Structure formats: C-alpha cells, structure tokens
Amino acid sequence: MRKEDQAMDIRVETFPNYRLAYVRQIGPYGPANVQAMEELKSWAREKKLLTEPAVLFGIPQDNPQITPPEKCRYDACITITEEDQIDDFVSESKLDGGDYAIFRINHTAEDIQRAWVEIFPALHRMGLQTANKPILEKYTDDLVNNHLCELCVPIKKEPPFL
What is the pLDDT of residue 71? Predict the structure, then answer.
C-alpha cells in the first residue's frame, strides 16, 4: 500500500442488506444535504431510533457532473429493523449489501471534497473496480463524536487469484 493510501485509512468491508428510512433532498449538493440529515435525525430521535448503535447514511443518488444541480437527489438515511414502524414523514428503501472500500476521513467540507478527488486514483492503485451502486457517506455515533465520517465506495468482488 502506498503512503498516500495509508494516510487515507482505507479498508474493505462487506455490508449486510439494510432496511432504511430516509428523507430526500432535491437540488444542488451542499448545505441542503445537512438540513435533510438534521430533519431525519429529528424524526429518528422522536421515534427513539437515534441511539448509540444507529447507522446513518448520506446517499448522493446522482453524479453532479452529469445531472443538472437542481435535479440532484440526496437521501439522508437511518438503518431500521424490520419491526420498526415508519410514518409519512420518511420514505422506506433497501440498501443492498456487498463489498465496499471504506475511506475514513475528517468530517469537514474541505476533507470530504479532497477525498472525492483522491478515492478513485487510490482504488485504481489498489486494483479495485467500482460497482454500479451509489457511494455512501456513513455516520455512526463513534465517528461523529470524533469528527469523522466514512466514504463507502461499492466495489466489484474479484475472483480469487489462482
């Protein structure tokens, strides 16, 4: 692993399938994404779902280099169990599990922007190919308390080398 990759704190992890409750924001990515996440967290707090083991995901659904900014979709999500009830404030979705390259980064606008530029060359250097699924921003209590987040890039499972 190259020095740049070590500095980024990269690992590969297999995610299970998740049931999600989410709030969707449509428009340019940025401050409105934060607002959507705050609305979701407020709802989850009210439903007693925002507990220490909760996992939150921010899912940009569109590539802003292809999709006009006013049509970009961002989903602020929380994992929920099959038993958890939802209401009309949120929508429900499934996140298909699979293999992800996880990039742990400081949760600042500057570090997130830099990571979006650096993750693809890092994956290439590691010999990993991206899968055709959205990249996830992952937040847990531990990450947030340490001012961190994780960018989770879906990768294709390669057959083992002979």
Answer: 97
